Amino acid sequence: QNLVQPTASSTTFFLNLMGYEASWHNTVGDVLGVQTILGVSGGRYPITVNLAWPCAGVQSLAIYTVAILLFIRGAGFSLKRRILYFAIGAVGTFFVNVLRIVSIIWMGLNYGREALNMFHLYYGELYFVAWIIIYPLIIIYGRSALTKLFKLVLRAATRLYKEILTLIQRIKPSFAGHEKQKL
Protein backbone atom coordinates (compact mmCIF):
# COMPACT_ATOMS: atom_id res chain seq x y z
CA GLN A 1 0.00 0.00 0.00
CA ASN A 2 3.01 2.33 0.50
CA LEU A 3 3.53 2.59 -3.25
CA VAL A 4 -0.04 3.75 -3.94
CA GLN A 5 0.38 7.33 -2.69
CA PRO A 6 3.49 8.15 -4.73
CA THR A 7 1.81 6.56 -7.76
CA ALA A 8 -1.36 8.61 -7.22
CA SER A 9 0.66 11.78 -6.70
CA SER A 10 2.76 11.23 -9.84
CA THR A 11 -0.31 10.33 -11.90
CA THR A 12 -2.18 13.47 -10.85
CA PHE A 13 0.94 15.55 -11.53
CA PHE A 14 1.17 14.33 -15.14
CA LEU A 15 -2.57 14.58 -15.75
CA ASN A 16 -2.53 18.18 -14.47
CA LEU A 17 0.48 18.85 -16.68
CA MET A 18 -1.57 17.59 -19.64
CA GLY A 19 -4.27 20.15 -18.85
CA TYR A 20 -6.75 17.99 -16.95
CA GLU A 21 -7.93 18.71 -13.42
CA ALA A 22 -6.78 15.78 -11.31
CA SER A 23 -6.64 15.21 -7.57
CA TRP A 24 -6.48 12.29 -5.19
CA HIS A 25 -7.38 11.55 -1.59
CA ASN A 26 -7.43 8.61 0.79
CA THR A 27 -10.60 7.28 2.33
CA VAL A 28 -11.17 4.49 4.85
CA GLY A 29 -13.16 1.65 3.32
CA ASP A 30 -15.19 -1.02 5.06
CA VAL A 31 -13.37 -4.20 4.19
CA LEU A 32 -10.48 -2.96 2.08
CA GLY A 33 -9.06 -0.48 4.60
CA VAL A 34 -7.52 2.68 3.12
CA GLN A 35 -8.53 3.38 -0.47
CA THR A 36 -6.93 5.95 -2.75
CA ILE A 37 -9.44 7.72 -4.98
CA LEU A 38 -8.40 9.69 -8.08
CA GLY A 39 -10.82 12.20 -9.55
CA VAL A 40 -10.09 13.64 -12.97
CA SER A 41 -12.09 16.06 -15.11
CA GLY A 42 -11.45 18.14 -18.18
CA GLY A 43 -12.20 15.49 -20.78
CA ARG A 44 -15.48 14.39 -22.34
CA TYR A 45 -16.19 12.04 -19.44
CA PRO A 46 -15.12 12.92 -15.87
CA ILE A 47 -13.51 9.90 -14.22
CA THR A 48 -13.24 8.68 -10.65
CA VAL A 49 -11.07 5.60 -10.05
CA ASN A 50 -9.97 3.61 -7.04
CA LEU A 51 -6.21 3.13 -7.20
CA ALA A 52 -5.55 -0.13 -5.34
CA TRP A 53 -2.16 -1.64 -4.52
CA PRO A 54 -2.09 -3.89 -7.63
CA CYS A 55 -2.55 -0.73 -9.73
CA ALA A 56 0.53 0.77 -8.09
CA GLY A 57 2.72 -1.68 -9.97
CA VAL A 58 3.69 -3.98 -7.11
CA GLN A 59 3.57 -7.05 -9.35
CA SER A 60 5.49 -5.23 -12.07
CA LEU A 61 8.22 -4.30 -9.61
CA ALA A 62 8.39 -7.88 -8.32
CA ILE A 63 8.67 -9.31 -11.84
CA TYR A 64 11.18 -6.59 -12.78
CA THR A 65 13.30 -7.42 -9.72
CA VAL A 66 13.49 -11.12 -10.57
CA ALA A 67 14.12 -10.50 -14.28
CA ILE A 68 16.79 -7.83 -13.84
CA LEU A 69 18.60 -9.73 -11.09
CA LEU A 70 18.81 -12.77 -13.37
CA PHE A 71 19.95 -10.57 -16.26
CA ILE A 72 22.66 -8.63 -14.42
CA ARG A 73 23.85 -11.70 -12.53
CA GLY A 74 24.99 -13.38 -15.72
CA ALA A 75 26.11 -10.24 -17.54
CA GLY A 76 29.50 -9.82 -15.87
CA PHE A 77 28.96 -6.24 -14.68
CA SER A 78 30.75 -4.82 -11.66
CA LEU A 79 28.80 -4.56 -8.40
CA LYS A 80 28.59 -0.78 -8.82
CA ARG A 81 27.07 -1.13 -12.31
CA ARG A 82 24.67 -3.85 -11.12
CA ILE A 83 23.34 -1.58 -8.39
CA LEU A 84 23.11 1.36 -10.78
CA TYR A 85 21.28 -0.63 -13.48
CA PHE A 86 18.91 -2.11 -10.90
CA ALA A 87 18.07 1.28 -9.37
CA ILE A 88 17.57 3.04 -12.72
CA GLY A 89 15.36 0.20 -13.92
CA ALA A 90 13.28 0.23 -10.72
CA VAL A 91 12.64 3.96 -11.13
CA GLY A 92 11.88 3.36 -14.81
CA THR A 93 9.43 0.60 -13.88
CA PHE A 94 7.66 2.98 -11.50
CA PHE A 95 7.30 5.64 -14.19
CA VAL A 96 6.21 3.12 -16.84
CA ASN A 97 3.42 2.16 -14.43
CA VAL A 98 2.49 5.82 -13.92
CA LEU A 99 2.40 6.22 -17.72
CA ARG A 100 0.14 3.17 -17.90
CA ILE A 101 -2.28 4.63 -15.36
CA VAL A 102 -2.23 8.04 -17.06
CA SER A 103 -3.02 6.29 -20.37
CA ILE A 104 -5.87 4.30 -18.83
CA ILE A 105 -7.39 7.44 -17.32
CA TRP A 106 -6.86 9.36 -20.57
CA MET A 107 -8.81 6.66 -22.41
CA GLY A 108 -11.65 7.00 -19.89
CA LEU A 109 -11.63 10.80 -20.05
CA ASN A 110 -11.87 10.84 -23.83
CA TYR A 111 -13.73 7.65 -24.74
CA GLY A 112 -15.70 6.66 -21.63
CA ARG A 113 -15.68 4.02 -18.93
CA GLU A 114 -15.95 1.08 -21.34
CA ALA A 115 -12.77 2.14 -23.16
CA LEU A 116 -11.05 2.68 -19.81
CA ASN A 117 -11.95 -0.86 -18.69
CA MET A 118 -10.92 -2.39 -22.02
CA PHE A 119 -7.55 -0.62 -22.00
CA HIS A 120 -7.01 -1.49 -18.32
CA LEU A 121 -7.82 -5.17 -18.76
CA TYR A 122 -6.10 -5.89 -22.06
CA TYR A 123 -3.61 -3.28 -23.21
CA GLY A 124 -2.18 -1.60 -20.12
CA GLU A 125 0.07 -4.52 -19.25
CA LEU A 126 1.82 -4.23 -22.61
CA TYR A 127 3.61 -1.14 -21.28
CA PHE A 128 5.40 -3.26 -18.70
CA VAL A 129 6.07 -6.11 -21.14
CA ALA A 130 7.68 -3.61 -23.54
CA TRP A 131 9.73 -2.09 -20.69
CA ILE A 132 11.00 -5.45 -19.43
CA ILE A 133 12.20 -6.26 -22.96
CA ILE A 134 13.54 -2.81 -23.90
CA TYR A 135 15.44 -1.97 -20.70
CA PRO A 136 17.97 -4.85 -20.93
CA LEU A 137 18.44 -3.99 -24.61
CA ILE A 138 19.22 -0.41 -23.60
CA ILE A 139 21.78 -1.73 -21.12
CA ILE A 140 23.37 -4.03 -23.70
CA TYR A 141 23.30 -1.78 -26.75
CA GLY A 142 23.00 1.64 -25.17
CA ARG A 143 26.69 2.48 -25.06
CA SER A 144 27.42 1.30 -28.58
CA ALA A 145 24.26 2.99 -29.86
CA LEU A 146 25.33 6.27 -28.24
CA THR A 147 28.80 5.92 -29.75
CA LYS A 148 27.29 5.32 -33.21
CA LEU A 149 24.93 8.26 -32.77
CA PHE A 150 27.83 10.51 -31.72
CA LYS A 151 29.86 9.46 -34.79
CA LEU A 152 26.86 10.08 -37.04
CA VAL A 153 26.31 13.56 -35.58
CA LEU A 154 30.04 14.32 -35.86
CA ARG A 155 30.05 13.26 -39.53
CA ALA A 156 26.96 15.36 -40.26
CA ALA A 157 28.47 18.38 -38.47
CA THR A 158 31.74 17.98 -40.40
CA ARG A 159 29.87 17.72 -43.69
CA LEU A 160 27.81 20.81 -42.81
CA TYR A 161 30.98 22.70 -41.85
CA LYS A 162 32.59 21.82 -45.21
CA GLU A 163 29.46 22.91 -47.09
CA ILE A 164 29.45 26.24 -45.25
CA LEU A 165 33.16 26.78 -46.04
CA THR A 166 32.54 25.98 -49.71
CA LEU A 167 29.61 28.39 -49.78
CA ILE A 168 31.68 31.13 -48.14
CA GLN A 169 34.49 30.60 -50.66
CA ARG A 170 32.01 30.90 -53.53
CA ILE A 171 30.54 34.08 -52.12
CA LYS A 172 33.90 35.59 -51.12
CA PRO A 173 35.22 36.31 -54.68
CA SER A 174 31.97 37.93 -55.77
CA PHE A 175 31.86 39.91 -52.52
CA ALA A 176 35.48 41.07 -52.98
CA GLY A 177 34.69 42.19 -56.54
CA HIS A 178 31.65 44.07 -55.25
CA GLU A 179 33.81 45.89 -52.70
CA LYS A 180 36.33 46.95 -55.40
CA GLN A 181 33.56 48.46 -57.49
CA LYS A 182 32.43 50.62 -54.56
CA LEU A 183 35.90 52.11 -54.08
Description:
- The protein has 183 residues and is mainly alpha-helical.
- The chain is built from 5 helices and 3 strands.
- It has a 3-stranded antiparallel β-sheet.
- Strand 2 (34-41) and strand 3 (47-51) form a beta hairpin.
Task: Quickly list its features.
flat; 11% strand; mainly alpha; three-stranded antiparallel sheet
Number of strands: 3
In spatial order, strands of the major sheet run 1-2-3
Low-confidence stretches: none
Count of separate DSSP helical elements: 5
Q: What overall geometry do the principal axes of the alpha carbons give?
A: flat
Mean pLDDT: 84
Tell me the fraction of residues in β-strands, as a range: 5-15%
Distance between the termini: 83 Å
Question: Order of SSEs, N→C?
Answer: HEEEHHHH
Largest sheet entry: 3 strands, antiparallel
Q: What is the gyration radius calculated from CA atoms?
A: 26 Å
**Protein structure class:** mainly alpha
Percentage of residues in helical conformation? over 70%
Topology (elements, then pairings):
Layout: H1 4-17, E1 21-28, E2 34-41, E3 47-51, H2 58-73, H3 79-111, H4 113-123, H5 125-182
Antiparallel strand pairs: 1-2, 2-3
Helix pairs in contact: 1-3, 2-3, 3-4, 3-5
